[in-house]
Amino acid sequence: MRSAAYRMLKEFNRTTLQAIATHRGMTKLKQNPIVLPGAEKTALRTQFGALCYRIQRDKVQVLLVTSRTSKRWIVPKGWPVHGATPVEAALREAHEEAGVEGKVTGNCIGIYSYVKSLNEKDQLPCVVAIYPVRVTRLEFDYPEKSQRKRKWVSIKKAVTMIDQPELRHIIKEFDPRQST
Questions:
Q1: 102 contacts: CB under 8 Å, gap ≥ 6
Q2: Residues 6 or more apart from 111 whose CB is under 8 A from it?
């Protein structure tokens, strides 16, 4: 039996959210709350994530981090920051969770959904807008170093390490070497 949070995510109109996230000016706009008619404030939450990458010998590598509790491989992501744009929030998470200094190289490249477990019985459905971040420097010490591991991997390897199917698809389709 699926949780109510999972069902709500499935009912959410992803086409509408993708249209919002890929709007040309998104990197300069503050994130407005996403509201589902008839739902409580905590029915669906938005996060911003960074697909951190580098190009080595003409091959794309992405930087994955482990989640704090389950130690699954994920991309850096987190909650909106008051007064910050989605891009600024994604860069902040990349720094805190992986020690990344870098530059966002484009608009949102995709959105994925997941259900965040708050405790044994409470779950929170989330959608994450992902921004491409070209890594210019990795810090040795960073805020969440003691809580996470980080690892550079190929796109092909990353797809096998990530649990969320929508995020796997975003990573699989990502190629910053292609001109837009």
A1: 50, 52, 91, 94, 133, 134, 135, 136, 137
A2: 14, 17, 18, 21, 127, 128, 129, 130, 166
Residue 81 CA to chain centroid, in angstroms? 14
Q: Average pLDDT, stretch 63-79? A: 94
pTM as predicted? 0.79
Report the C-alpha dihedral over residues 33, 35, 39, 43, rounded to 10 degrees.
-40
pLDDT digits (tens, 9 = 90+) for 126-145: 999 999 999 999 999 999 99
Query: What's the CATH superfamily of 4-170?
Result: Nucleoside Triphosphate Pyrophosphohydrolase (3.90.79.10)
Query: 115 falls in which pLDDT band (50, 70, 90)?
Result: confident
- What are 59's two structure tokens? 């091959």
Separation between Cα atoms, residue 9 and residue 88, nearest integer Å: 25
For 37, the token pair is 């008619």
What are the residue ranges spanned by the domains of the chain? 4-170
- CA gap 159, 61 in Å, rounded: 12
